[in-house]
Amino acid sequence: MQDSIEQDKIPYPGEDIEIVELGDSSSVFISGFESEIKEIEAFLKEDALKQEKEGVNRTFLWMSREYHQILGYITICADAINLDKVQKDEMIRRGINYKSLPALKIGRMGVQKSFCRKGIGTKMIAFAVDRAVKIHRIAACRFITVDAKNDEIIPERLKPERFYKKNGFEILKTKEKSNVVHMYKNLVNIIKEEEKIKP
User: Fold this and answer.
1) Mean pLDDT by 10 residues, the chain (199 residues)
2) For the purposes of burial, counting CB atoms within 10 Å of the CB of 107, is it exposed (0-12), middle (13-18) or buried (19 or more)?
3) Closest to 164 measured CA to CA, from 179, 144, 178
4) Domains (range + CATH), the chain
5) What DSSP string runs through the chain?
6) What is the pLDDT of residue 146?
7) pLDDT for position 9
8) pLDDT of 99
9) Could you tell me which residues are beta bridge partners of residue 143?
10) Torsion angle of the four alpha carbons 164, 169, 173, 178, in this order, in degrees rounded to the nearest 10
11) What is the pLDDT of residue 135?
12) Torsion of CA 150, 153, 156, 158, to 10 degrees
């Protein structure tokens, strides 16, 4: 049993991962995807390709070169953070007088059930951060947002909110009796560091 627990902690090797945008040719891999959160699984199998073709979302499949199967996926799209009064007042103090600020949204994200707890989700967050920084170079993008599922049927150890907090996200707002927690990650320090080193 202890050996099994230790195996779970071993990070998945990055060199085995190939990232492929979802399309007609790559969609053949999605039938084998299983998530511990059924809504995450259903989105990939039923809605992702249609939304990709409609230009609503972009979905990226994370594939194993060795196993020729899907490890997980991440869906991203443009977004904006609507500020509450406290947040808006803070931005005004910084000389930024806007009701909303530009962001990149993680619409959905899931890891194949048999490859959970191997750091793949954290690698996907890094991928989203990298995309946001690249967008920022041509059209400002200050935050990453996500609506973390908070359904009661999801076991506490699998709650997405916990995972996102570990990856630097904060709660933006929680609606009473809602099954989602609106969260964000501020990229301002990452962007400043990027601007220091860019040629």
Assistant:
1) 44 94 93 91 96 97 93 97 82 83 96 93 97 94 91 76 93 74 92 78
2) buried
3) 144
4) 2-197 (3.40.630.30)
5) -HHHHHHHHSPPPGGGEEEEE--TTGGGGGGG---SSHHHHHHHHHTHHHHHHHTS-EEEEEEETTTTEEEEEEEEEEEEEEP-HHHHHHHHHTT---SEEEEEEEEEEEE-GGGTTSSHHHHHHHHHHHHHHHHHTTS---EEEEEEE--TTS-GGG-HHHHHHHTT-EEEEE-TT-SEEEEEEE-HHHHHHHHHH--
6) 96
7) 64
8) 83
9) 103, 186
10) -10
11) 95
12) -80
Question: Residue 60 pairs with which residues in a beta bridge?
Answer: 21, 74
Look-up of token digits 């920022």: 136
Sequence letter at residue 79: D
The Cα–Cα gap between 7 and 100 comes to 44
Give residue 12's identity as a one-letter amino acid code.
Y
